[in-house]
Amino acid sequence: MATALKNIALVGASGNVGKVLLPALLASNFTVTVLRRASSSPSTIPDGVRTVDVDFTSVDSLTAALAGQDAVVSTVGSAALGAEQKKLVDAAVAAGVKRFLPSEFGCDLANPLAAKLPVFAPKVEVARYLEEKAQATPLTYTFVYTGPFFDWGLQYDFIFRSAGARPLLYDGGNAVFSTSTLDAVAQAVVAVLSKPEETKNRAVKFQSAAISQAQLLEIAKEVAPERDWQPEVVKLDDLTKAADERLAKGLFDGETFAPYILRAINDERYGPKFEELDNELLGIKQLTEEEIKAIVKEKLNN
Ligand SMILES: NC(=O)c1ccc[n+]([C@@H]2O[C@H](COP(=O)([O-])OP(=O)(O)OC[C@H]3O[C@@H](n4cnc5c(N)ncnc54)[C@H](OP(=O)(O)O)[C@@H]3O)[C@@H](O)[C@H]2O)c1
């Protein structure tokens, strides 16, 4: 039987995922220690939460901060996904941490095509590194695959561009993708940590809904009929060709990488719709049609 995971080190608590996850962990009675960069803004962490400033370039600094921790949950952003996370893994091994959840929270990288997309290279590298460590040391891992975030993705026009009522439908927008609310992501992480044996050395996949851009457009028309919706079809091949050219020029930025993520979400060959779901294991309920509409309506009005 696996030992319970009680002491949780959260890395990246001030970010999009971390700031939703931190209160969920605290509410579930985990003992949380936040590891943050000395340069991080202190105001984002609630009073009373144990916080340790670390140097992400130093395995010693990270190892000292992880003493006594049962699990590391990394929600670091794109700048820290590669080298920094590998150092964090090394430190977790050195400190005797039992479980490591790397900063995934997105596409199913068990899909070979998705795993080859340049944007995911650091995540794939860390995943392979964790698999090696799990063979050679007592450290275990769980990869949390969520699909694009539903509420966040609507808010930032990422899964559906509502700005100007001019949505971009990638290759027509008919590919169905799994998508999860940030609350569901936090709930899933809590469940993974609460069920260490069932979630050991594997990926978990879940969804709040499976939906396409075309379906989102129909909902948008229904909840905001006063807008003059004029979708534009965009070819993913054109976007990724331009991204490949930028990559060849050494331009490693959001403009280069976003098209690859759009490909992973909107091209069914890349596995955007999860076929096997861990919703039941993790206690994640899917949204009803009415709940989906309510979220779309709220996001369109904000
Ligand atoms: N599925 C989706 O739709 C979706 C959307 C967004 C993100 N994601 C994924 O979710 C994960 C977290 O993303 P996020 O948007 O929450 O991240 P974020 O807000 O960009 O950053 C999270 C935290 O990472 C830490 N950080 C940033 N740069 C760092 C560096 N150079 N070294 C060490 N730490 C650094 C910071 O924490 P401190 O200041 O506390 O050090 C920051 O608050 C990523 O894997 C991302 O790909 C998925």
Automatic annotation (TrEMBL):
One Pfam family named in its UniProt record: NmrA
Keyword terms of this UniProt record: NADP, Oxidoreductase
Record-given protein name: Isoflavone reductase-like protein P3
Record keyword Cytoplasm present: no
Domain NmrA-like: 6-223
Superkingdom of source: Eukaryota
